[in-house]
Design brief:
By secondary structure, this protein is α+β, with helices and mostly antiparallel strands. It folds into three domains: about 240 residues, PPM-type phosphatase domain (Phosphatase 2c, domain 1, 4-Layer Sandwich), CATH 3.60.40; about 35 residues; about 70 residues, no CATH class. The chain is about 40% helix and about 25% strand. The protein has eleven helices and 14 strands. The strands form three sheets. Strands 2, 3, 4, 5, 6 and 9 form a six-stranded antiparallel β-sheet that branches. A hairpin with a 2-residue loop joins β7 and β8. α1 packs antiparallel against α2 and α6 runs antiparallel to α7. About 40% of the residues are buried. The structure holds manganese (II) ion. Manganese (II) ion binds next to α5. The site of manganese (II) ion (MN) has 6 residues, from α5.
Length: about 400
Amino acid sequence: MSLRIAEEAVRTDTGRQRNANEDSYFTKGPLFVVADGMGGAQAGEVASKAAVESFPRELPAAAPERVLEETIEGANRTIHELARKDPGLAGMGTTTTAAIVDLEAEVVAIGHVGDSRAYRLRGGRLEQLTRDHSLVEEMRRKGQITDAQAEDHPQRSIITRALGPEPEVQVDVQTVPAQDGDVFLICSDGLTTMLDDEKISRLLARATSLQAAVRALVDEANRAGGRDNITVVAFRVEDTAAPAAGNPRGGPGEGATLIGSSAEEAGLSATEVRRRAAAAAARRRREEQQARPRRRGLRTVLKAAAVIAVIAAVALGAWYGNRQIWFLGTDDSGRVSLYRGAPYELPFGIDLYSQRYASPIQTGSLPPKRRDAVTGHKLRSRSDAVSLIEDIEKSEGLR
Ligand code: MN
């Protein structure tokens, strides 16, 4: 027995609060890639494009895990070099999550860096396959914050591993089994910071096709705020053997929404599937409308209160801690600058730092080692930060 890719779909969207879409993707079975770029101006887009374009269009015969690892390591070197040579691209980076389906072996290999994610939906259950390389995920794993706190954490978007910033990167690779009916999802954090896993699996299960599913996911992420670029790639695998006569699964429940192959197996025509799905959706809407008004209002208020409480706590803590912390960075004009505070931004445009001094020296003009000291945003004491900026100015003949 072997598998085939029965259906694939992709949708990308700028979201509601960004001006540009810095996500990139590639989908052509058996290869699927999502990259979420970051960096000033167009740099994020350059990084995510470079990552996606590093994948060979004709996959070599080597083991998929090796192909993924070597390709992503190569992409990292390419992006790092681009950023090193062009001051306009300094500090750019990107996530990369890629899947290669091995149809013969009935497995999917996944390579991953950053906080984009891969999921597998099997039997209605959504399972996250990748581990976020993010500050919040590390705090959660160490037990410093709860799952619930991680979900709504204001610093969710700070990632601890990406392609670009370092000359070498460690790539997570793994291989998971695939079977008839499995749906795999690869997405940027613009989806998962807006929708929790439960919501994502509900939207997937409800959709009548993958095309409809990715559209619904992006629409819903936008409805929830659309704070970031949203990219969703999905594919479904099925057995190459024609489904046996009869109905081995015992038939769908009344009104169940079916995706693709299981509907065919149940002997339903596409029209019938759509009719049943529409009826089920209408019934659900009626039920929701009856239950909704009060509950929803209360939930919104509670959620808003919780978010405000978390932000207030973080801001207060940050304000105290921040006064002792300094770091070097690059300001909007590209100058080496001294900042007081931590190099983080909260939602609603709240910065945890303030600029205390701007040197006339451009970060991009520094030799690589000194530039790394500026773009690394390492936290320092005041005296350490000040003496470093003095050193830089001296070495550039300014003092
Ligand atoms: Mn993003």
